[in-house]
Amino acid sequence: MLSLFTAIAAFASTSLAVKPIHSHNDYTRAVPLWTALNLSIMSVEADVWWQSNQLFVAHTSDEIDKTKTLNSLYLANILGIINGTVSSITPISVSNPLQLLIDFKSDGPTTFQPVLDALQPLRAAGHLTAYANGKLTQGAVTVVGTGNTPLASVVASNPRDVFFDADIRQLYSTKPGIGLEWGPEISPLASVDYASVSSTAQMQELVLNAHDFGIRSRFWDTASSVSTWDMFWSAGSDWVNADDVLGASNAWAVFDS
User: Fold this and answer.
1) Where are the beta strands (DSSP E) in the chain?
2) What's the pLDDT tens digit per position in 174-196?
3) CATH number of the domain bearing residue 216
4) What HEC string does 118-157 produce?
5) 99 forms bridges with which residues in the sheet?
6) Whole domain around residue 170: which residue ranges?
7) What is the pTM of this model?
8) Tens digits of residue pLDDT in 93-116
């Protein structure tokens, strides 16, 4: 098992994003996906609802706009960028991968198969990060399910190309399944509401715990300020959860210098 974790940690360390910034609720921006990519931000999030045989993107079911689907806002554009048929300042490739968080808002088990089906064009083209036959293979896009994503469905998938956003507080106290351990072959990302973290010291410990498993860290519902972002970056947290992506991008430029 130790050799597996070593290999997983090596995999995780070779696929870092351009900036350690996650575009939280990316679909609420005036130009979803493109705003993040234009800032070289390679992690975006879409809330999805399975209704009327469509995966709609919206924060609540009352806000559903039937012109805004997971495919129209994200998947078709991502595929076009990778294939070179759609222009983008920032490329999406195996060497510069995009993390796509899909936040399941509707019932998880009911929504899981439609999400798998929607990803088929990217899957068929070999663009998805996937785990099969004991091997984790980096793709141009890593899909991580959060929200109501059913862990059991993720674990049962073989091959697996929709992964799970684990609870960063429970990596040592829980298992993802019988005989299984946490790692990026199940959860390349572990997150939690920052309000549930008691102190900066605990946050730093949780980041280190995640890294022990070769998993990246994220804390959501955080204050939108340079001092807050700097605190997470200083602790080595892999993704700063940002609503103000321009502000976070500017802050990262200063921090990184």
Assistant:
1) 21-23, 43-51, 54-57, 98-104, 130-132, 135-137, 141-147, 162-167, 189-193, 216-220, 239-242
2) 999 999 999 999 999 999 999 99
3) 3.20.20.190
4) HCHHHHHCCCECEEECCEEECCCEEEEEEECCCHHHHHHC
5) 43, 142
6) 2-256
7) 0.93
8) 999 999 999 999 999 999 999 999
